[in-house]
Specification:
Elements lengths: L10 H15 L8 E4 L9 E9 L2 E7 L6 E3 L8 H15 L2 H4 L2 E8 L4 E8 L5 H14 L4 E8 L2 E5 L3 E8 L2 E8 L8 H14 L6 E5 L7 H4 L6 E5 L2 H13 L5 E5 L2 H8 L18 E6 L8 H7 L4 E6 L2 H11 L3 E9 L9 E8 L2
Parallel strand pairs: 1-16, 6-7, 11-12, 11-14, 12-13, 14-15
Antiparallel strand pairs: 2-3, 2-5, 3-4, 5-6, 7-8, 9-10, 15-17, 16-17
């Protein structure tokens, strides 16, 4: 089924099938009853990417059919936010009549937010010169009559930012609104509504926690900053420079003065904690000063590596957010040697697909 053809009336049926698949997949483990967090059936994605098709005077957003590989025109995209749908319609009209802006354009990416801000990235097979900038400024001026919008141009070894390369998101979590700087090409949770539920679930399963929190793969602080209310301090790691910079901005914006972000991979943190390597990035930070009894991990699809898995087993409480149930199962095989799963959740970040985001909270056996 093409994303443009999703049927909201079938959402619950497809969600039920996904739940059944996840429950059966984890049946060999001693798991509690699964708690399910559904998505909105339409307009749930805050990001979208489209190729561009030129044909004489026509210009259109297109996608490719997964089965036939044939292109098809996209005039309305139900999975994307209403803001993306509105902007993409107006943008294509403005680009179509501007030869300088449309020439050699091959892709358009959108990053929207609950705050009403949207960032457009235009990708080209040509250098971006002053003439291009003047043309885009005209388009941007027209769009800003209706939208809080910024535009970025990208070409080979070139990035042109017209004002900003980020949006400021406002995420409601447990009756409080958090501000998050989300940078172009940086990782963000695609489904803002489900993301809120994920953070609230993590807060719920760690309420009444003691000591400090360690978070690995923290990104821009999506979990670290809201979860700071449950802990004395939060120590978080992230390898991406742009994400660390955004996280630091978000710490300041949300007055989360008990959160510290380190630019380190999980593997480097394991080495630092064991005293196997010293890092200049840890100057002024004494890891032994932290009393972390809880660790939160949100790894990439490959899951936790062996060394990190061994390290997190030392913590009393493990909160594991997984974008890949298969690698979660692999990691659980090891983690369940020392811990028991107390909470099990599924977050439907990607409706109408087989992809499922899972959460488990494990407690160490005494």
């Amino acid at each position: 089924m093409r994303p443009t053809e999703i049927d909201p009336s079938q959402y619950q049926h497809q969600l039920d099938d996904k739940i059944k698949t996840i429950v059966e997949s984890f049946a060999s483990f001693d798991m509690p009853e699964i708690k399910v967090f559904p998505s909105a059936p339409v307009h749930y994605r805050m990001r979208a990417e489209f190729r561009v098709w030129h044909e004489e005077d026509e210009l259109n957003h297109i996608m490719f059919d997964q089965d036939s590989k044939q292109k098809y025109i996209v005039e309305h995209f139900p999975p994307a936010s209403e803001l993306i749908n509105a902007v993409m319609k107006d943008l294509i009209v403005l680009l179509k009549t501007n030869e300088t802006a449309r020439r050699k354009l091959f892709q358009i990416d959108y990053l929207s937010s609950l705050s009403g801000e949207i960032l457009i990235s235009l990708l080209y097979h040509k250098p971006l010169d002053d003439e291009w900038q003047n043309a885009i400024k005209q388009i941007l001026s027209a769009l800003r009559k209706s939208y809080k919008v910024d535009i970025i141009g990208r070409a080979r070894k070139q990035k042109v930012v017209l004002d900003r390369d980020f949006v400021l998101e406002t995420l409601p979590v447990n009756n409080r609104v958090y501000t998050f700087k989300q940078v172009e090409n940086g990782f963000t949770q695609p489904n803002a509504g489900v993301n809120t539920r994920m953070v609230e679930w993590a807060l719920e399963v760690t309420k009444n926690s003691k000591g400090d929190l360690l978070e690995l793969y923290c990104g821009l602080g999506n979990f670290s900053i809201p979860m700071a209310v449950n802990f004395n301090r939060v120590l978080a790691t992230e390898i991406s420079k742009s994400s660390v910079a955004a996280a630091q901005y978000n710490i300041d914006a949300n007055n989360a003065d008990n959160v510290t972000i380190l630019r380190m991979s999980s593997e480097e943190f394991v080495q630092a904690q064991k005293g196997l390597r010293s890092f200049n990035r840890l100057a002024g930070i004494d890891l032994t000063d932290y009393a972390c009894e809880t660790v939160l991990v949100d790894p990439p699809r490959a899951g936790l590596d062996e060394a990190t898995t061994d390290m997190v087993k030392e913590y009393r409480t493990i909160v594991y957010i997984s974008c890949n149930p298969e690698t979660l199962k692999e990691n659980l095989t090891e983690l369940l040697k020392t811990h028991d799963v107390k909470h099990f959740a599924m977050f439907d970040q990607f409706p109408y697909t087989h992809h499922a985001e899972c959460g488990v909270c494990l407690e160490k056996r005494t």
